[in-house]
Specification:
290 residues, Rossmann fold, D-amino Acid Aminotransferase, Chain A, domain 1, Dna Ligase, domain 1, four-stranded parallel β-sheet, 9 helices, 13 strands
């Protein structure tokens, strides 16, 4: 029986409810799955025939340590998903610029670097944006993500400068009015094949769709054109991915990508009755390719 590690964090040491469903299906398939906290000292990773990143939801707080761990597993020759090269690439939001250069429709962006005398108000005026959202280059779950406040350019500039004191650069994007009203799509794929989707909506008065900020999730079937456009984004990635979540908004018939989550995305498996089985089948296919 092959032994598989679902890599997780201390806070999610028993895995999420979604991953527990996949755990049980794989057990029926004869696959021995164990939760494994990625930074635990007592784990011998060579005991596993495969490592799959799941709820490592603290990686962005200790990125270099996390990437060093990924490299250590890679050097051991243990199959690792998603592939280490993709994990490293996806860990910095600069990947959005790569996708844009490859022809993917992404939300417009500006990168402001430390020491460049960056003036947020000037960026908004040049771009014609009424408001903007500012994000760190490395982040998850809207960590350190904030929106500008109309009529308070000085306070916004001071906040930007504090952020640039911590990060070498920050990402600035327009405030998307569609997210508070229509929500943000999340389309989930296994082995490049579309599985299911949800729409995430923020709490009243907020723009962040994560549950810890009061965001809500709804099962919804996207139009076929959105699926095709999300698949186009995935086709630009250098290596195939076991799992992927493509987030974006629908604007004037186009799917504008906000994020492509390839490290430790929540996959919203509980929102579709066949989704846990589809993920388990994709894992089993990796373990037994023939």
């Amino acid at each position: 029986m092959i032994k598989v590690a679902f890599a997780t964090s201390k806070e999610m040491a028993e895995l999420t409810r979604d991953d527990q469903m996949v755990f049980r299906i794989l057990d029926r398939y004869g696959v021995d799955v164990e939760p494994a906290v990625w930074d635990a000292n007592h784990i011998n990773w060579q005991d596993f025939g495969c490592v799959i990143i799941r709820s490592c939801w603290d990686y962005h707080l200790r990125l270099q340590e996390f990437l060093d761990w990924v490299t250590d597993i890679e050097k051991l020759g243990i199959p690792f998903y998603n592939p280490p090269k993709i994990v490293r690439w996806n860990s910095n939001k600069r990947y959005l610029k790569d996708l844009q250069s490859a022809g993917v429709q992404v939300v417009p962006m500006e990168w402001l670097g430390r020491g460049a005398a960056a003036q947020l108000e000037q960026v908004l005026q040049t771009r014609g944006w009424q408001r903007a959202v500012i994000k760190p280059p490395v982040g998850a779950s809207a960590h350190q993500t904030w929106a500008t406040t109309p009529g308070q350019p000085r306070a916004d500039q001071e906040r930007l400068e504090r952020m640039l004191a911590e990060h070498e650069e920050v990402l600035v994007q327009p405030f998307l009015e569609d997210i508070p009203t229509r929500g943000e799509w999340s389309l989930v794929f296994f082995e490049g094949q579309y599985s299911h989707a949800v729409v995430k909506k923020p709490a009243e008065g907020d723009f962040r769709v994560q549950a810890k900020y009061g965001g809500r999730v709804f099962k919804k079937d996207p139009p076929h054109r959105l699926i095709r456009q999300a698949q186009t984004a995935l086709s630009k990635i250098e290596e195939p991915c076991l799992y992927a979540r493509v987030d974006g908004i629908e604007s004037k018939g186009q799917f504008l990508v906000t994020e492509v989550e390839l490290i430790e995305p929540e996959l919203f498996l509980r929102f579709h009755p066949r989704a846990p089985e589809r993920f388990a089948d994709a894992i089993a296919a990796k373990l037994n390719p023939f």
